[in-house]
Amino acid sequence: IEQVELVADVSPQIAWLLGETALSPEQSLTPLEGSDWQRLRAVVPDDQETLWWVFGLGENICVHKPDTWLKTLKQRANKVRELYEH
């Protein structure tokens, strides 16, 4: 499975969890200035399982990279929003 660099901002709860159980051996968490969130950088598998894990974090994560994941997450979020608007 190909690897990708995941770059995302995560809530304090998720940062704590990732501090306890790393997503990847190649992972870093950096505090975001003026916020209690942290910037996550991790090399992860480019697979459905990891993407579903990210999607499951909902409002506790804001993905910046990879671009393909960002596009997929936006499409899924729009579908969820549409479900609740009707």
What does this structure look like?
The chain is of the alpha+beta class. Helix content is about 45%, strand content about 30%. It has helices spanning about 10-20, 50-55, 65-85, and strands spanning about 5-10, 25-30, 40-45, 60-65. It has a 4-stranded antiparallel β-sheet with strand order 2-3-1-4. It is globular. The termini are far apart. The mean pLDDT is about 95.
Labels describing this entry:
alpha+beta, 4 strands, 86 residues, four-stranded antiparallel sheet, globular
The total of helices stands at: 3
Radius of gyration, CA atoms, in whole angstroms = 13 Å
What's the number of extended β-strand segments? 4
Overall morphology: globular
What are the segments in which pLDDT stays under 50 over at least 5 consecutive residues?
A: none
Secondary structural class: alpha+beta
Output the helix-strand order: EHEEHEH
- Order of adjacent strands in the largest pleated sheet: 2-3-1-4
What characterizes the major β-sheet?
4 strands, antiparallel
Strand residue percentage: 25-35%
Q: Whole-number average pLDDT?
A: 95
Helix content: 40-55%
Q: Give the termini separation.
A: 39 Å
Summarize the model shown.
With 86 residues, this protein is of the alpha+beta class. It has three helices and four strands. Strands 2-3-1-4 form a four-stranded antiparallel β-sheet.
Task: Please write out the topology.
Elements: E1 3-10, H1 12-20, E2 27-31, E3 38-45, H2 48-56, E4 61-65, H3 67-85
Antiparallel strand pairs: 1-3, 1-4, 2-3
